[in-house]
TrEMBL record, chain A:
Name of this protein: Spermidine/putrescine import ATP-binding protein PotA
Similarity comment text for this entry: Belongs to the ABC transporter superfamily. Spermidine/putrescine importer (TC 3.A.1.11.1) family.
Catalytic activity line of the entry: ATP + H2O + polyamine-[polyamine-binding protein]Side 1 = ADP + phosphate + polyamineSide 2 + [polyamine-binding protein]Side 1
Quaternary assembly: The complex is composed of two ATP-binding proteins (PotA), two transmembrane proteins (PotB and PotC) and a solute-binding protein (PotD).
SMART domains in the cross-refs: AAA
All residue ranges annotated as the ABC transporter domain in the record: 23-253
Any single biological process term in GO: putrescine transport
Gene3D superfamilies noted in UniProt: 2.40.50.100, P-loop containing nucleotide triphosphate hydrolases
Gene behind the chain: potA
Automatic annotation (TrEMBL), chain B:
GO cellular component: plasma membrane
UniProt-listed CDD domains: TM_PBP2 (cd06261)
Entry's Gene Ontology BP terms: transmembrane transport
Pfam family of the protein (one): BPD_transp_1
PANTHER family: PUTRESCINE TRANSPORT SYSTEM PERMEASE PROTEIN POTI (PTHR43848:SF2)
SUPFAM superfamilies: MetI-like
UniProt protein name: ABC transporter permease subunit
Keyword Hydrolase: no
Annotated organism of origin: Oceanomicrobium pacificus
Keyword Transcription regulation: no
TrEMBL record, chain C:
Source organism (scientific name): Oceanomicrobium pacificus
Protein name according to UniProt: ABC transporter permease subunit
InterPro entries tied to this protein: MetI-like, MetI-like_sf
Transmembrane region(s): 12-30, 77-101, 113-134, 164-186, 263-284
Signal peptide stretch: none
CDD domains (alphabetical): TM_PBP2
Keyword field contains rRNA-binding: no
Amino acid sequence: MPSEKPNQIRFAPWEDTEAVPLIRFRNVVKKFGEFTAIENLTLDIYEREFFALLGPSGCGKTTLMRMLAGFETPTAGEITLDGRDIVPVAPNRRPINMMFQSYALFPHLSVADNIAFGLKRSPMPKSEIAGRVEEMLRLVRLQKFASRKPHQISGGQRQRVALARSLAKAPKLLLLDEPLGALDRKLREDTQFELMDIQEKLGTTFVIVTHDQEEAMTVASRVAVMDEGKLMQVATPDVIYEQPESRYVADFIGDVNLIEGTVAEAEEGGYKLVWADGAPPIHAETDVPLSLGDSCTFAIRPEKIAISTDKPDDRANAVPGKVLDIGYLGNISTYHVQMPNGAIFKASATNSRRLSRRGITWEDEVWLSFTATAGVVLTQ
Amino acid sequence: MNRRFTWFNATSLTLGFAFLYLPILILIIFSFNESKLVTVWAGFSTKWYASVFNNTAFLDAALVTLKVGVISSTIATVLGTMSGYVMVRGGRFRGRTLFSGMIYAPLVMPEVITGLSLLLLFISIGMDRGVFTIVLAHATFSMCYVSVVVSSRLVSFDRSLEEAALDLGCTPFDAFRSVTLPIIAPAVISGWLLAFTLSLDDLVIASFTSGPSSTTLPMKIFSQVRLGVSPEINALSTLLIGIVSIGVISASLVTKRSAVRRRAQEQQAVGGAA
Amino acid sequence: MRRLFLIGVPYLWLLALFLVPFGIVLKIALSDTALAIPPYTPTLDLAAGWAGFKDFLSQLDFENFVWLTEDDLYWRAYLSSVKIAAISTFIALLVAYPIAYGMACAPEEWRPTLMMLVILPFWTSFLIRVYSWIGILSTEGFLNQFLLWTGLISQPLVIMNTDWAVYIGIVYTYLPFMILPIYATLEKLDGSLLEAAEDLGCSRLQAFWLVTLPLSRPGVIAGCFLVFIPAVGEFVIPSILGGSRTLMIGKVLWDEFFANRDWPVASAVAVILLLILVIPIVLFQRQQQRQQEADA
């Protein structure tokens, strides 16, 4: 796994068989009447992790988080924190705090009183509360706004108050329910890095629920992709992106070309896949054991496909096609290329040159090429 | 809806509001009439107001009404807030359907039936009728109105505020006291005002449940009105209308001003962000 | 424990002061008239247990209800209450719709003020508002003075102490209940629907008829129920503005109770009044529920 911060010790407790998880879900089931929100789920979350629960709305990620906070009780299974069963513990007695999607700032209390709210109900002596509030205000850079009411500050500031309030009691675990959902795009990107900084500074375990895959990829140490109450894959962001285990994960995260094919012939380290009449077969390297005639999906990201006017000789795969459409996004362009059999491939290229000097345009005959390891073979 | 404001609209609004306000306006004007004849103007005078203030029967009745109003609306507010909370947040419990039925039924029940049934109850348990029985009766039907006002506020109340309080270490009761109650306070106050006005206004239920020594103002006015129009009643009515309108208008101005201030602060907050 | 307290207190209060009294009304309606005070013979002796209860059942009689069917005063009073309430509701609708429509078309910054002007009369005493019409409607009242002055009539109209005075009184006092729900639906109406209708070739009048009116139906229905239901059991308006020939059941009940002191018959009248009201109340509830589901 390539680390993004090479000068730091690699943080991967989930690979360490000795490590004891902070949170353990064991065969947890949650039903609402007939509806099953969580289906037999087992999951470990380690201390100091920034863990993201990612999925479309209704996938059960919020239910999972609310069970951690104590607002929902599992129908079956157990949830432990530091080895202790927390299912029977009331929400106000758990060392877990939550940052709500709506922020849930008390409108009748000032920013400082909002932050002090939990402290006043903790064993912390009165004399220390003011100092702690000050410290939290400094952490989120809101000292000037201590006496304002929530409606007197901006959306971004409210988000930071909510964060400070949920961190004030120094919880073992902080839950963040779509924490950046209400912010506009630019502010959201800045805040993502701020969140990561704060998490690193405090060393608190964070669990974030989001439906925004970019957000999950940016902030999280590990991402759990959920669908219909099940975990589809739990892995680091780069593994989720580069080595998805299923069509669902490949399709949910980022843009992807999914090509249905059948195994025609085994090769050195992989297989030859037949995917369309008259088109050259795809050479794909994979560890997945397959037999002749098996059907599978070849998933390849658009940026892993090169587009050129001439046929390249050095690539394992090259297919001819015609440019149907060009999506110009500024930094990159996405080309929709139609194959001889009618299938459409997406390929993207960085616009390193100015537009006027770019060679490829609509209706051009082009070649798409990729290496044997550029895509993954999926059977699920 | 955005539509052009036409002559037709202007005319119907003018006529409509004239219909709503002209009778009251005439009543107010003729309370200052010199003559005892209520439909012929004979010059300006405030003598009917003097005679209202000298009429001990009116003053006694007003006192009874005020007493009943304050006590019954306070009881109604406490009970109504409790039941509004139960309706919205109580979850399932046995007899919930009956409970919500008993909350909504008095709203549509003809007053004559409510009054009759309460009177029969008081007689059958041998309770002497007086201020106390009127208070019980008024508290019972106005708690239902308070409950509706409070529960409609609670429905739009962001439930995560209560969850946040629990999450930060509150017990459920503590969460209600320090978060829910301060936020729904305006609804509770307007519930009290509604209960108070209903009590001040009620004739039928009070007539059934009052005793010989506890005549309320509406009962007094009613017994006079049956004898016909009198300038004294006009004067008394004007006083009552004046008090209520000042109360309602100033309350709405206060809420409007604070809303305007709040909006200004919100805009400032957005403008001064980052 | 706290939850029990929270539910229990209002629950017991309502049981004791709403449901039990109603049970008593039902019981008295089914018992004999006696001349003593209280003027009914108590028929349920709780101390006697099951035997007492059986005794009670055997003593129940529907004499008072039979009496109600035999004396056509009651029949006529029920029918006349429903008729008066229905006519008044219809007039209120005709008066309220243009006002609500005008409010919805008014510039946005006027609307809160207009709303308050509609609600304000609701806060002023009902009794006074009814009373204020006496001076207007009486033979030498302002309306007759005005009409005689304009020369439209040569003889004063007799309105006071007729059914017409009751219609006017009901329309006047319940008008806000009709205006507000209609205004609420009209205000929500998307203006672009009307523009779309006109764009597709409707005249303004056709657009109103084909788009605005059907879409305001929920408000119209709600308003009609809100006026009709309380109007049926009205007592104050017929007793102040109506004449001796104006029959309304609320007034009959009052007279039966206070003048004739016949409590069993008064109770029977109350029970039947409620039965009459159950149908519109249930219909109204259903309509509200459907509306809520449609909005959600």
